[in-house]
């Protein structure tokens, strides 16, 4: 079956072998198995920690968590009651509809609207839709944010990010092109240093050491290469990108990180995280990414 809805997740199957799995909790893509033009055999392209909670007790450690309306610790007054990375990744979304089901691919739409577990900590009216599309060698995930306020209230201000855990050997993986892009190094010891912009000098960014870099106004297309394969990310609407790997230095402190898990992924996360996107009443913003298995 190309699209199968289970109690807590949706399974997508492409006619030529690729597959994806989406947990309704957090609309978290847990798995994307895909071949490439060069190597048709589907392989897992995402990392999920074996210690990840998949029961809705906490955000999934891995896959593609959806980050909204804030990235990192909240800084906006309207987000003061929210936790790290906002609420989208820790709420159960609704399987809304099948968007596509043919030889080209399969696509589903999930939605999230205000409900008690959200409105008790976030008062803004909103509507989120998340469209996940599986093609032969691609997975796309599009986040639609609508300001459903009726009157001319102040704009809806938010941040959004797709927190991709790309499976790769972290001592060999390289991310490009980021040379010349301004970034903020969150591994620095003080707020002053963390808020001091640097410029990426490297042609190829590695994560051999603890890396938590927020690149601002980044190119939008990224190649993630390691001996295990190559994944390309093409993002639209997400002006920034985060590259993160905790390595053992901080990975050992992450309770739901499997032993040595940091050795098996790199996070390359298209986002709108420097500043806040603004939506007037009735407007919709779309952040899109297309992941392509290149090798
Ligand atoms: O996207 C990178 C980051 O902000 C890191 O600072 C690290 O905190 C990571 O997200 C994971 O955050 P989480 O809340 O899932 O533990």
From TrEMBL:
Family annotation (SUPFAM superfamilies): Galactose mutarotase-like
GO terms classed as biological process: carbohydrate metabolic process
Location of the active site: 163, 269
Keywords for the protein's UniProt record, in alphabetical order: Isomerase
Pfam families, A to Z: Aldose_epim (PF01263)
Function noted in UniProt: Catalyzes the interconversion between the alpha and beta anomers from at least three hexose 6-phosphate sugars (Glc6P, Gal6P, and Man6P).
Protein's name in the database: Glucose-6-phosphate 1-epimerase
Species in which this protein is naturally found: Wolfiporia cocos (strain MD-104)
